[in-house]
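QUALITY CONTROL LOG
STEP: pairwise intake check
CHECKER ROLE: data steward
CRITERIA: each record must contain a sequence immediately followed by its structure tokens, with no blank fields

ENTRY 1 OF 2
RESULT FIELD BELOW
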Amino acid sequence: MQKKTKKKTTPKGKGEPTDKLVGFGTNVLTQINKMENPDIKLPIRALSNIYFDEKHKLIRLGDKISHRTYLNVAHTRKFMQTLLVASECKKIINQNVTTSIRDLYYALKHTIPGTNENTFEDQSESDPILEDLEAALNTLREALHLQADRKGYVAGPIMINDSGDRIDCSKMGSSGWAIPSNVEPEIIKFEKCTADFVLVVEKDAVWQRLNEDKFWRKQNCLILTGKGQPARGTRRLINRFHKELKLPVYVLTDADPWGYYIYSVIKQGSINLSFLSDRLGTPSAKFIGLTAQDVEKYGITKNVTIKLNQGDIKRTNEMLKYVWFKPKEWQKELRHMLEKGYKLELEALSSKGIKFISEKYLPEKISKKEFLP
């Protein structure tokens, strides 16, 4: 008879993130014991080390490395801060608790004994250090038991298991299911989903309209809002919906450079978080609207359009040069916007009727597959 093997369990506070942190600290300690100048190697998270992966359609981080050394006066403060953040992350994991990046900042801020120097003056110092650590360890902050602000909601035909609690997103009333910071498979599991696609909506007010009109039921879809530029958790959830559930992703934003940029971040990731593009970007996402060309197509009155300001014009001209906006459809849309000199918000569709967006505009675009790539 074959012997039953005892299933191995990972001790609390152990596992890959802890191992990476221990290795990170051990490397520094080894250099000190050898009387060497401690040197932390970090990927360069700057535009000079960013490239667009044409094959996978994602913004990626290159292989250039920077050195943060203790005995370099220009580096000493950040060197100390990097080790403080790494040490605190290990402590949090060992305690098996989760905390916010704001709490992390306060936990680490103190005056160095014998000096008037603070370890951190502001959270704007600790946040980039955390991102450096994520990039160096090739891990997510959520794996380090850290969470950012929650931002975004979902409604539609999906059953989600959230840390053991079963949530039916078709029975969440007017509020929807609030997307947590950590949506990794260990925390958020998809139990059942019958949706045909995901509609990502920039504006919370427009999402509320679609939810009230039960758009998700009529179109058999999931409706999701990131309430403006979506947080990491929201973008990761969109990524998982597509990869794991094989759902097409359609994005609905304002017809302006900032709405188009939100779409581009959802689609191929962002420059700032290029080291996470595989997990945050959804290259097959398509843009469903709003476009400046819809003004003529749907007979939207000009009095609800907004004149482009100098910032809009500058941003649009910059976007015309981006690789990911090179498809002819996007070139046509951006040039059309500049030519007409106006932009418009999603709410402008209400000038055609409060339910115009849910009863005509979106159903027509979806049925005709009128998307921008």
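ENTRY 2 OF 2
RESULT FIELD BELOW
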Amino acid sequence: MSDLPPIREVIQRHGLAASKALGQNFLLDEQLLARIAALPGDLAGAQVLEVGPGPGGLTRALLRAGARVTAIEMDRRCLPALAELGESFPGQLTVVEGDALKIDHNAVMLGAPFHVLSNLPYNIGTALFVRWLSGENWPPLWQSLTLMFQREVADRIVAAAGDDAYGRLAVLAQWRSDARLAMKVHRSAFTPPPKVMSAVVHVTHAAMPDGVSARMLERLTEAAFGQRRKMLRQSLKGVPGALEALASLGIDETRRAETVSVAEFVALARALS
């Protein structure tokens, strides 16, 4: 639909000033939005979940790519603009009003496989990301995550052991998934411009390592990185059997969490599972 009005015009017509309280920063560059929508590959006929569509900038790029989009939006001001967009793409857009943190995403997607693409509201982005990566059931229904984060958060997701940004997010993102920084986005691309730079992270799931409890890995990373400046013998002493497992695996208990690789955390979790 090349005759859609510019996103800026939609924002002005509906009085959609970005809400700081909702973590909103709108993207207006349609070429950039099309590039983001293309990251997962061909979306023609694919089911896509979008969180926080706002005035529908990324939504229209996804619809133009042929996706069937379910958008979760809690800002009621945006619903009329999204309804107009739905009229331009009959049968392709479903809008769910509500808080994405409180909604069962698998149920909303009717139990069918789906991709997640979203310019995530900054104030809930990390919480949603951890939720999509957690749980014992693997592989999940989502097939890929293509998500806009503050650059600092994106760096934490793709960091390797020893990097300053390496921490719990990196382990959760990489132990049974492949995560890459797909695109850097300058702050000037947003309205209003945020104070920080942004980046798009693309994640696809990989095989679940045998004999590993997701909850045990989550517990280990919570303990280890909750006291990241302390040695493992101190940070993990509250996890039953952890110090013995370190010794059996030949992992020096005087190391700090930031030096322990994803593979070593997985081996430790396996020993304790």
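INTAKE CHECK: passed for both entries
DESCRIPTIVE NOTE, ENTRY 2: Residues 68 and 91 are 8 Å apart (CA to CA).
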